[in-house]
Design a protein that fits this description.
- By secondary structure, this protein is an alpha/beta fold.
- About 45% of the residues lie in helices and about 15% in strands.
- It is built from five helices and five strands, in the order βαβαβαβαβα.
- The longest helix is centred in the C-terminal third of the chain and has 26 residues, at about 110-135.
- The protein is globular and about 50 Å long.
- The two termini are about 25 Å apart.
């Protein structure tokens, strides 16, 4: 049995292959296990798996509503992920506040350090919640 700690899982959803490659390298270097999706079908397949994603980073801007579509799907099918999305957009998308109700953030795609900072914060919050639940069961 492998006793090494599992790397936190992160799902990147974007249609820009270069950005996916760049972010994958950045997050893998920081200890994340990264899965990527360029379509809604791929994203849903990943989210339907048994993998526990601590962060979902998705495109949602004027040129694509991919992230919004996946977020709405997650609200219906993986509700526990509702606060673990980070959206990549140059500007806040229309209807963003109505759809996410203050649970998620928008970060510009070129602000890679901010994307990493937000992802790390989410990972730490999830880890702390898991620790609290484990302590309650003892």
């Amino acid at each position: 049995m492998d006793s090494s700690p599992r790397r936190p899982a992160l799902l990147l959803i974007h249609q820009d292959a270069d950005l996916l490659d760049q972010l994958t390298r950045i997050f893998e270097a920081r200890g994340f296990a990264v899965a990527i999706a360029a379509t809604a079908f791929q994203a849903m397949s990943h989210l339907e798996s048994d993998r526990d994603y601590v962060v979902v980073i998705a495109a949602w801007d004027a040129s694509t509503t991919l992230g919004a579509d996946i977020y709405k799907w997650a609200l219906r099918n993986r509700f526990h992920l509702r606060g673990q999305f980070v959206f990549l957009a140059a500007e806040v998308p229309p209807d963003f506040d109505r759809v996410v109700a203050g649970r998620c953030l928008v970060v510009a795609p070129h602000e890679t350090e901010e994307i990493v900072r937000v992802a790390r914060t989410l990972r730490e919050e999830i880890s702390e919640e898991v620790r609290r639940r484990a302590m309650k069961t003892l």
